[in-house]
Amino acid sequence: MKILAIESSCDETCAAVVEDGRRILSNIVASQIETHALYGGVVPEIASRAHSEAISWVTEKALFEANCTLSDIDAIAVTNEPGLIGALLVGVNFAKTLAYGCKKPLIPVHHIKGHIAANYAHFNGKDGNELLEPPFISLVVSGGHTSLVKVNSYTDFEVIGSTRDDAAGESFDKVARMIGLPYPGGAKMDAAAKAGNPKAFAFPDTKVKNCPYDFSFSGLKTSAVNIIHNAAQKGEPVDVNDMSASFTAAVVNAIISRIELLFKNEDLACTKLVLAGGVAANSHLRNALEDTCKKHGAKFYCPPLNLCGDNAVMIGCQGYYEYISLKDKDFFNLSLNAYASSEF
Questions:
Q1: Could you write out the three-class secondary structure of 60-125?
Q2: What is the pLDDT of residue 22?
Q3: pLDDT of the residue at 48
Q4: Which one in 78, 135, 209, 307 has a CA-CA gap of 20 to 30 Å to 112?
């Protein structure tokens, strides 16, 4: 089964063709990074306009690289929640029009479920042939989300813990901006941290009372602001590498502390841990999670770097399982809408 997938939830216009929820036939991403770098972050109105300009040619290129025409496509999947509402609407309306015109099933996909499904799209494991299958527990870390999710099946998700305020990715970007690193700051901070001292600056613990699996990163971000402002008042520079290393270590340690609790919980019986989301590209987090999984005898899965950020492959993977799990569902629903925020 071949699915044409479309993703436009933030600042990348993406289209892909995925076969049977696993095989990548094409993966096209039109990035807006250079445009938004001028403003130090994503400008929603500019993002929406850029999606409108790119979505047709991105889709056409995805079909061309997959050596397909629309007649070869069995269904169309699209991200409809959550994300920037204007950006989402561009993708949803384009997909609806395409599905109606070609008489193809239309499959709505939750963006975060898609990030998790990115791990289905490639061979995992050192032997190169181990495919990920539920059940497992996923750590989703992105600019807008930091969550622990129990994946019971391809379409059954249970949130174990989530952030109470800022997400890890958002915190990385904002602190990076404060220390003068260009947008997108998360990747720049990851690189700078490799040359810095992770113990140069002290950051507070971020535990949430009575909610052991929940996250909170606002305190870490505020602490970084105070360190930077205090240094500025004294006329002292803040070493970019040291701040990057110290802040990265604080975020990673906060996440690892939850993962340690996870492995100690016999009711969860975690034997497979799956990393997903844009911050899954962070080398420090990937290494720490891999070491923790080895320590507890669990298998660790993470997507290749090109599937960590927003892409349409992940939407095609999840869309496939949404479709086959509910064959009797009306997939021709042209009243499909987009939603800026939503739960699983």
A1: HHHHHHCCCCHHHCCEEEEEEECCCHHHHHHHHHHHHHHHHHHCCCEEEEEHHHHHHHHHHCCCEC
A2: 95
A3: 96
A4: 209
